Structure formats: structure tokens, C-alpha cells
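SUBJECT: protein chain
CONTENTS: sequence, C-alpha cells:
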Amino acid sequence: MEKKLLALLLTLPVISIAITWYVFVSSSTEQSQVVFPEQNIQKKVADTFFNHATIISFSVTGDPKSKIVGDQIFHYPDEEDSEITNPEITIFRDVGLPVHVTADHGWINKEGTRVFLKGHTVIKREESRDNKFSQLETPELTIWPNKDFAETDKAVKITTTASIATGIGMKAYLDKEHYYLLNNVKVRHIPTKEPATKTGN
């Protein structure tokens, strides 16, 4: 069957940010073939689901603010949030490369302004001319993509080329990439490898 493109334009008057949903749905995929995520142990029947969905939000100036991609999005009766499998979130920054966030599962509110991530959740930044490499890992994370803010009360591990930091609880300002570990903070510095010296004959 031919794929259909569904575009829904949602306006958020509170923060004046437009969010566009681009949803690609394969009508040949039956719900009985869908593997329901771990959280839904009762295997609820979704009233709506989409395959290969991309949610893009824009700032008031029309620039991309964030992008959320999921293999599938499910909405269940009597639940406010929709569930995303294998979510991938991209936060576009004012300066430097975007920040990428991945997880096993996610739940997004109907406005698209809050995402709860669960499973192996990773915030990763690749090394570039403007940035150094960093990777943050945690089992749970709540992120507000349009506010460039994320937080968790779970264990956190932050790895860079120079150190490994661990702690419990974190607040993160993603645009500036400031991560604040709240409790039981431990830091281990990674020694810099000296370049090998050549020996002459």
C-alpha cells in the first residue's frame, strides 16, 4: 500500500512555538504485528498509532528548535501521553553542533513540550572544532526540548576525553551544555597519553 503523509500543525500560544508533526503511516502494518513496549504489561489496545514519526518544533523565528523521531508512536485510551519506541531527540543549539538524545522508550505529552525517556538513555555530543566529546548515560530522563532543559533523579554517568563523573540526580541546560550532578558526585580523571617518542638507530 502507498504510504501516506499526515501533517498536523499545532500552535502553542503559551510559548509561541509552532510544532509540526510529520507522520508516515504504512496501512499494511496491522496492530497485531506490533510489539508493545515493556511498560504496557497489560498490552493495552492503542486507539491510534503511527509508524516512523518525526516531530519537529520551530522557534518564533522559524528556526528548527528540536526534532523527535520514533519507530512508532502509540496513544492509549484515557492516557494523556503517547508512547514512542526507540526515540531519538535532536536539540539544535545556538552555537556548535546539535545535542543528540536516544533511549529505549519514551512518553510525550500532547503538546510535544515534555518527553519522559526510559531505558538506556544517552545524551551524546560529537567532538568538533567548537566542542569536545561528551556522553551522558542514565536510566531515566525528563526533557523539555523547547526549553533546552533536562533532569533526572536517577544515577548519571558523564564521560569525556578527560574524565568520568558519576552521581545521583542531575539538572542539565542543553543549549549551553551545563550538567549539574546533585548527590554522591565522584570524578575520575583520565590521564593524557603521551605521544610515543621515536628512537633512532
Notes: Residues 126 and 173 are 17 Å apart (CA to CA).
